[in-house]
Design brief:
Largest sheet: 6 strands, antiparallel
Order of helices and strands: EEEEEEEE
Strand content: over 45%
Shape: globular
Length: 90
């Protein structure tokens, strides 16, 4: 189970924490599939936003680290991350 009510996690646990490969589907419709460490996204993963945009990249300690692939439409993309960073693709 995810950290918030309505989140669903399926994957590996070590010491009762998400660690290894797993998928978390969040109550807001977003989903992360990839590597976890100590309960946080960490390593290679794919994050799908609620509007269908897909971000493939590296995550570290629960935060976006580096986008490897961003699939979007021709109108460009702006992504606001929880850590305050903003990614803009025109």
């Amino acid at each position: 189970e995810g950290d918030n009510k309505g989140d669903k996690y399926v994957g590996e646990f070590i010491n009762n924490q998400k660690t290894g490969q797993g998928t978390c589907t969040y109550a807001n419709g977003e989903k992360y599939v990839g590597e976890w460490k100590d309960g946080k996204s960490h390593g290679e993963g794919v994050y799908t936003l609620s509007d269908g945009r897909i971000i493939e990249g590296l995550f570290e300690d629960g935060q976006y680290k580096n986008i490897l692939l961003d699939e979007d439409n021709d109108d460009g993309t702006t992504i606001d991350f929880d850590n305050g960073e903003k990614y803009i693709k025109e």
